[in-house]
Write a structure and sequence with these properties.
The complex is a heterodimer.
Chain A lengths: L2 H26 L18 H27 L13 H7 L2 H21 L1 H15 L5 H22 L10 H13 L3
Helix pairs in contact in A: 1-2, 4-5, 5-6
Chain B lengths: L1 H13 L2 H19 L5 H8 L8 H26 L8 H14 L1 H35 L3 H18 L4 H15 L2 E2 L6 E2 L5 H4 L4 H19 L19 H6 L1 H16 L5 H15 L11 H25 L5 H12 L6 H6 L1 H32 L4 H20 L2 H19 L5 H24 L4 H4 L1 H18 L19
Antiparallel strand pairs in B: 1-2
Helix pairs in contact in B: 1-17, 2-3, 2-4, 2-17, 3-4, 3-15, 4-5, 4-6, 4-14, 4-15, 4-17, 5-6, 5-14, 6-12, 6-14, 6-17, 7-8, 7-13, 7-20, 7-22, 8-20, 10-18, 10-19, 10-20, 12-13, 12-14, 13-14, 14-15, 18-19
The chains are: A mainly alpha, B mainly alpha.
């Protein structure tokens, strides 16, 4: 990604931030009917979040202006977007596909917890993540997943009595059976 | 003389096998909880509170005090070895601790951390023992405007650290403060920025944000990096105390950090996070090598380390003398005392001085034994670090999500945590500093609460400038802001590039 493209990305983000913060500040800070909630003459319950959103809007506007001027005059700044590492450099160091897969695995894991329970979801996540990360030895994958899940359950459910989700229906029964097997229940 | 005699008596009680054993157990729990990313020492204290029902008030305070002292330091282990802060107060430790450990080895970095922490903690415990009454009178003069000024100082300290990335730092900070205002406001009960979603009505907890941004975001970034991460610790993560010569070299940063931490710890509204942040910001400005902070400068690690442990002892002063906890850890200890029908306040010093001085002695012992316990935990941590990074990251993610769930026993927090993890990853990718956002979520609600209560009580904005203590603290805060606006000095062509301090 060239510096100009990186700068354009910054312009897009700055513009989006400016618009989003203004929209939130004006229309979405309070529920319908409470938009003008006022506590006293100086400040009310909406003062603080509105002030912060306007702060975001001001900073985004300045950033937008700076980057736009830089693009327009085609001046090579170092870096283009207010200091720090260049976005252009960052793009070469990261694999977007891996990132997306990692995020997807995480979302599936968290989504599965309420359905199949923490124990089963965690065991499945540990297997999947290890395979995603390149661990191929079956013995390692299985032992880490099973022993790791058991250790976590024993520590948090038994010792600290944290009510981790057990899932619904048959998965609830399976989880309870597993807890009995581990001596947790 | 009376105080010394009382302390001697307290020490004899604190050294009894049961009391000492419980203290050591608390230290171990605290250091481990602090070291694990996703589980903070506050979680550990909260989870341990029910167990204290079975203990006497003295033993309960020794146990929770051990967790508190150990936990405040414990977060540094993870910060220094993994660049993932174990707690909010360990965020500044990442900035110089991690690069220092990569360059000079983990032994040196961890040794700086433990030495500075021990010194800060011991001084704080001594101040707690001998200066509680005069400090109580000083704290009594503080009201909501002073509390607001202290949190305002913490907020702008973040900006001082973002020099060179000020605009993006401010966007991040304002975003964090805005996120902290989601949910019902504390004074009027009006729902803000909830969009009618029940999941947001209880607000966004800062622990959930911290775990998401720092732990999950960092793991996602590390996993997507094309270069394989080398998490192995070269020298088994051993640590020891620094030599006297090394301590002498760091005397300035350690003493400044200790002083700042002791002061901020005693202020209601202060706490280890603010203490560490302010100490780092001040050290960056006064230190000769301030411009190099973020590249692994020993002073940049020593100052926040000394400061955050220095808050632990003095945090108990307003709690014990006034019943006002100045930190989350102190609040849990207050809860434990009240569970045992012990009412903190001035009368406690006359009715139960033996118990008080035993608590003081326990704190002194905790800061001494913390050294030994931390050495052991760090060594085990170093062994753990030899694990395949993929497996390590998997457990970090699982523990992080458990930590998010444990905040309110609500699976919705887990979803929010993952959302912030993705946000944290995107911020890291596009160069937005993440620390200001997290610190905004932590300090923003506090600042708003104190601000709104001040306005409600005094009816004018000028109260923040007419009350002397508040005016002084806000004046210091504005100096920070002005300093942030000063452009960085141009470095000579052959000097190494300045590191991005705020890129946590």
């Amino acid at each position: 990604m060239s510096d100009v493209t990186a700068g354009r990305s910054q312009i897009v983000f700055s513009a989006a931030g400016l618009i989003a913060s203004l929209v939130l500040a004006i229309w979405f800070v309070a529920p319908p009917g409470r938009e003008t909630a006022v506590g006293n003459d100086i400040a009310g319950p909406l003062t603080w979040p509105r002030t912060m959103l306007l702060g975001i809007a001001c900073c985004a506007a300045v950033l937008l202006l700076r980057n736009t001027i830089s693009i327009v005059v085609k001046k090579r700044r170092e870096p283009l977007h207010d200091g720090g590492a260049s976005v252009a450099d960052a793009a070469d160091e990261f694999d977007n596909r891996k990132a997306l897969i990692g995020v997807a695995i995480l979302i599936l894991y968290v989504g599965a917890i309420p359905l199949i329970g923490f124990a089963l979801a965690t065991a499945g996540f540990l297997v999947t993540w290890q395979l995603f990360g390149g661990v191929r030895r079956k013995r390692v994958v299985i032992s880490v997943s099973l022993l790791g899940t058991a250790a976590i359950l024993y520590t948090f459910v038994k010792l600290t009595t944290l009510p981790l989700n057990r899932g619904i229906g048959v998965f609830d029964s399976l989880t309870v059976g597993l807890y009995r097997l581990l001596g947790i229940y | 003389m009376d105080a010394l005699n009382s302390l001697y008596g307290g020490m004899m009680v604190a050294l009894q096998p049961l009391n000492l054993g419980v203290l050591l157990l608390g230290l171990l729990v605290g250091v481990v909880a602090g070291a694990l990313p996703g589980i903070s020492f506050v979680n550990a204290m909260a989870l341990s509170l029910p167990f204290t029902y079975l203990m006497s008030p003295l033993v309960a305070m020794a146990f929770l005090g051990g967790i508190y002292v150990g936990g405040v330091f414990g977060g540094s282990i993870c910060s220094i070895l993994l660049n993932i802060p174990g707690d909010p107060d360990s965020v500044p430790s990442c900035w110089d601790g991690y690069p220092l450990s990569k360059r000079e080895g983990s032994v040196y970095a961890l040794s700086i951390a433990i030495t500075a922490s021990a010194i800060g903690g011991l001084v704080s415990a001594l101040i707690l023992t001998f200066a509680a009454p005069p400090f109580a009178r000083f704290a009594l003069s503080f009201d909501q405007p002073e509390f607001f000024a202290a949190t305002f100082l913490g907020l702008v300290s973040v900006l001082a650290i973002c020099r060179g990335k000020l605009l993006m730092g401010m966007i991040s900070l304002f975003t964090g403060i805005t996120l902290g205002s989601v949910g019902a406001d504390s004074l009027y009960g009006v729902q803000r920025l909830t969009f009618g979603l029940p999941i947001l009505e209880n607000g966004v907890d800062f622990v959930v944000v911290m775990i998401g941004i720092f732990a999950i975001g960092e793991v996602l970034e590390a996993c997507s990096a094309k270069a394989e991460a080398d998490l192995r610790v070269k020298d088994s993560a051993r640590m020891g105390l620094l030599s006297l010569r090394d301590i002498w070299k760091l005397r300035g940063s350690i003493s400044r950090g200790t002083g700042i931490g002791c002061l901020i710890g005693a202020i209601p509204g202060g706490g280890a996070a603010i203490g560490a942040l302010v100490a780092y910001g001040i050290e960056k400005q006064v230190n000769k090598r301030g411009n190099d902070f973020g590249t692994g400068i020993a002073d940049g690690l020593a100052a926040p380390e000394a400061s955050k442990n220095a808050t632990t002892g003095t945090a108990l002063i307003p709690m014990l003398t006034l019943g006002i906890p100045s930190s989350a850890g102190a609040a849990i200890m207050l809860a434990a005392l009240m569970l045992h029908n012990v009412q903190p306040g001035p009368l406690l010093f006359t009715k139960q001085p033996e118990m008080l001085y035993t608590i003081f002695a326990s704190f002194l012992l905790a800061n001494v034994f913390m050294i030994v316990v931390s050495m052991g935990v760090a060594r085990v941590f170093g062994v753990v670090m030899k694990t395949n990074p993929t497996i390590l990251y998997a457990f970090i993610l699982v523990l992080s999500l458990i930590g998010a769930f444990a905040v309110r026993n609500n699976v919705a927090d887990v979803f929010i945590c993952v959302g912030f993890g993705i946000l944290g990853y995107l911020m890291l990718r596009f160069g937005f500093p993440t620390a200001p956002l997290v610190l905004g979520v932590i300090l923003g609600p506090l600042a708003e609460g104190y601000f709104m209560t001040s306005i409600a009580n005094y009816g004018t904005l000028s109260v923040f400038f007419t009350r002397p203590a508040s005016a002084v603290i806000i004046g210091v805060a504005f100096l920070f802001v002005l300093w942030s606006l000063v452009p960085k000095r141009q470095k000579p062509p052959d000097a190494p590039p300045q590191a991005d301090v705020s890129g946590v």
